[in-house]
Give the backbone structure.
Amino acid sequence: MSGVPLNWYLILSAILFCLGIAGFLYRRNIITIFMSIELMLNGVNLSFVTFSYKFKQVDGHIFTFFVMVVAAAEAAVGLAIILTVFKNRQTLQVDDINSMKN
Amino acid sequence: MDAFLFLTFAAIAVVCGINIIVQTHPISSALSLVGVMGALAVLYLMLGAEFIAAAQMIVYAGAIMVLFVFVIMVLNAGGERLTKRSAYVRIFGVPLMAMFLGLIAFVIQAALPRGEMVTFGAFTRGGPADVGRALFTQYLLPFEVVSVLILIALIGAIVLARKEID
Amino acid sequence: MNLWPIPIFPLAGFLVNGLFGRRLPKAVINTVAVGSVLLSFLWVVFALRSLGGLETAFTEHLFTWIQSGSLTVNVDFSVDRLTAVMLMIVTGVGLLIHIYAVGYMSHEGGYYRFFSYLNLFMFFMLVLVLASNFVLLFVGWEGVGLCSYLLVGFYFTEQFATNAGNKAFIVNRIGDFGFSLAIFLIWRQFHSFDFAQVFSAAKGLPVETSSGIITAICLLLLVGATGKSAQIPLYVWLPDAMAGPTPVSALIHAATMVTAGVYMTVRSATLFLHAPVAMDVVAIIGLATAFFAASIGLVQNDIKKVFAYSTVSQLGYMFLGVGVGAFSAGIFHVMTHAFFKALLFLGAGSVIHALGGDQDLRNMGGLLKKIPITAATLFCAGVAIAGLPFTSGAASKDLILEAAYAHAPWMYWLGTITAGMTAFYVFRALFLCFLGDYRGHHHPHESPAVMWAPLAVLAVLSLVGGFINIPNWLEPMLPVHEADVGSLIKLLPFAAGFLGIGLAYVFYVLSPSIPDKLASSLGGLYRLVYNKYFVDEIYDAAVVKPVVQGSRTVLWKGVDAGLIDGSVNGVGALAQGVGGILRLLQSGSIRAYAAWVVFGSVIVLIAIGLVGGGR
């Protein structure tokens, strides 16, 4: 068994991405939603690296690198926001944070 | 050998991913996410992306997820409250996701019918030297921009969460 | 030889008096105002002498005003013999009236404002006379209309004065509309506004026997002239314009502005000669106005109103002259009329001044001994206007009537009857004013020298001005047709004048009860004429009220408030409505937003797939 079809990697990437979307839509805890977003980003990273292998170039790795950097920045700022929201609302349930309604 | 490794770690990744969205307490989700990242690191290695695999473990799993866990611990909010979902979601939710997934799989298959095989060691230009060379010559500008981005994120995070320390 | 200082001197006077007059002493204001007109007059004399015979016109190009494609309007001044006559009248009589006004207005408020407006009027009138193209003439035309409005409404705290000013301006505008249309047609036909070019092009065209573009142009020019020169149907503003100070009435509504219509018509003589139909219309309107206004003047009790209707009537004579082809006779009458009508108005002003403001003839009488100089000058004007032999008025009026006889005898007869009526009503006014016993309550005193000196000069001119043979001098430009009429025809107007004076003497000096008996026996007719044939009331009901009502209901409430405001507000309401609906998207629920994000991305994916992206 020498080798795995490339498409399997891509399908795995798609599965992870869809799992991320599912978590993003269905969960009510804001930190869990955030983690689902991270899951989506990981799926995309896998896809980038796969295509980098396919075309035998290193550019895909570079993209992955940048995605990781952006994810780090986003995580920092996003968690700061969540902290502030928790301080003001005492809740992490997304449904309760709806004072912008209408 | 490659297939075996792939299937194992793919399964780990998928199971951990499902766990993230199924668990009630966020800490369990966080730990599952760490598992996903570890599995993905191995898969990167199999694809010849040594630098990225290392970066994944050090940065993603080692720094970002630690940050997540830290925040969850600080907030100590407890598990999620279960509320009734609307009828739409309960009936259409899972089938829709399955359809979405099927669509993407179909697209992938249609686009790349003749999939080549991935063998470990076929791609050797994923090491730190190669990545570094590309990063500092061809992608120098985005590199600098992204460093400014991190600076901004740093300042933003400090400003947002500042009062807690006073 | 520069012509531009002629209007610029009064303009400078206007600027100085207008901007600084509030702080200047009266002596300085007088000097500036009168001095500027004096300088203008002297420059006119100097220019005319240095230009010599003026067989051809002398043009001075100042600058190009409008340059747009093939349309060029230059600011050019030109002088030919016609212009020379008008310039002398405007500056000369204007100078005398300015001097008179120094005395007349000495007790009035707004002194500097009056003189600045008067100077501005002189500027515009001189621009009008000096203009060498229709557009520049129109600029002067509009400008004198503006000054007329400003000066008639000079006592702006009185409602009737402001109403009169409005009426003068608005009725003038109706005439100006016709004039504008004429200018447009002139451009369309001749592609030029310049007098020299238009008239030389018109000479080559055939005479239009019935209708055609030249007839249309001339009729529209006539509409403009009826507005400015107070002919039927647009004369109604002139009697009301007597609300202004008397020097204004003398200058603007007797000597200069109202003659602008005659001047413009005579200037366009070439065009009119190619449209006999239009000339007939001019003559008929002039004659009808002369008779009509004279009949109203017979019974008026305000001395200024009598002279106002007299002005309208005499203007009718001028148009009659133009209409029958005696252009130079018309201009001659402009000049002599300037002399004796200005004198009549200034003299009336002197009388009013003497009586402390009273203008009613019924309160006057026996003033001959009290204000002799005024009386003497006014009688000089009276004989001139009545057309007694050897006076200036006789010379010009006779030329017109002879030309009328040669054209159509019935015009001559009607004109002669009107001459008799003219003599009658003028001497009625003079006898009521100066003879008999004083019926009022004031202490009449003679006017100061600054006021009666111009009167004296004008009296001399009224008597001997007829010997300045203007028609002869204008012959190269405006041919004079020496009418071959019998000596009876020549002498009848004199007889009519004497008859009119005699009748007035009988009615108002010998047996003063006759007029009252006549008035009561012809009650209805008397009331009709006394109320000016109710023309103002007819206009009000037929024209003014429907326009005001229409504007109010249709244009204001219907279009402006309903349509325009409604659509503007409607746009706002629409935006509000749509916004109100879109607002419901903002549910405040983060998960709803997340769902929208996913939904949108799916749409984008499908769209890319359909388009065939990913290749």
In short: The first strand of chain C starts at residue 58 and ends at 68. Residues 258 and 568 of chain C are 47 Å apart (CA to CA).
